[in-house]
Amino acid sequence: MTDLTRRACLTTIAGAVAGAACSAATSTKVTVAAHAWVYAAPLPGYDYTPVLEQIFADLTYAGIDALELMERALRHPDSVARIGDLSNKYKLPIIGTSYEAAMWDRGKHAEIFDDASQVIGRVAKLGGRMLGTSVGDAGRKKTAAELDAQAELVKKLTAVSRDQGVALNLHNHIYEVKDDQYDLKGTLTRVPDAKLGPDLDWLTGAGVDPAKFIRTYSDRIVYMHIRDRKSDGSWSEALGEGAIDYKRVAQTLRDVGFRGDAAIELAHPAGFKLTRPLRESWKISREYVRNVFGW
Length: 295
Prior knowledge:
Layout: H1 3-26, E1 32-35, H2 37-40, H3 52-62, E2 66-70, H4 79-90, E3 94-100, H5 109-125, E4 130-134, H6 144-163, E5 167-170, H7 174-190, E6 195-196, H8 200-205, H9 210-216, E7 225-226, H10 246-256, E8 262-265, H11 278-293
Parallel strand pairs: 1-2, 1-8, 2-3, 3-4, 4-5, 5-6, 7-8
């Protein structure tokens, strides 16, 4: 091999290595989890512990990457061992948990702090890294003092979560984002570094454009819930069977360079009769996310 040929070869190799490094630096793997609400909804106290194995089996069958728990399942003394065993058996990791409490009620702060700290510790032991926090619905607009109270508790729980390697994000229902996002803006004003984990369907239900929300808060969004609803406002059986323009949402996420993770969440209207097994709706939804979002 001549010196010229050798130099050309080395240049080609160096370029390929640099290109691969650049590609690795700019590519992002979005974990597509599933939130277990659809299993909890019909059960007493929304505690799906009795059907945990079905959940793991269904999600594994559907090709879901991870499971997002609900705090109720983590309150059982044996929850870490029980859920950990199933996670290992089905090779389905835990991404984190949702958590909701009346954080605006200062009189409940000590109770909530102790409960949330226990939940955070247990989800951390399971390898979870997300805490999707909802601040509680007062059934009316909260006062400034109540917004102060919930912000104070959010700050405390953010610190507890951080110490456990868990990232707290604010997860919205309709009550946080209706009335021009009065509740959410009240929290963000008081907790300016808070991260967000928006539910795109609840945004839609509150009359908030998900794509516009993503553009506005792109630097804060670390997680999101994806669910679909029909034009009449009722939930669809699976993703892609409703009317939310998720192609536009997906393009917006690409435009802003989204680097978080996401959870598919299924929900059905009261009294809804399944037309297929849940595992098939999860599979349809997972494929929809793959095709539309590229994850």
